[in-house]
Specification:
single chain, mainly beta, 4-stranded antiparallel β-sheet, 3-stranded antiparallel β-sheet, 47% strand, globular
Amino acid sequence: MIFIVRNSRGSPPPGLRVVSTRQTPSDRDRQDFFCVADAPVPDAIPLHDGWYADDYGGGIAVWGGGRFWEVRSTPLHVRLSDADG
């Protein structure tokens, strides 16, 4: 499962695997740590299906309620979708 741990101390709680980081979009004094673990830790922000941009022009694609994810070096551009049936 992937989730965000957000803080201003410069490091996530010990024991978590960090796969990416970015400055928090709504608060540039804080940092988002994209972490992977079997279960979220207290105060973690769950990630839902979607795209989460990083600070470098890429980001993380998440699906399956946070169970599946991939770090991408470029944004995800949708050209065609069957979202409307």
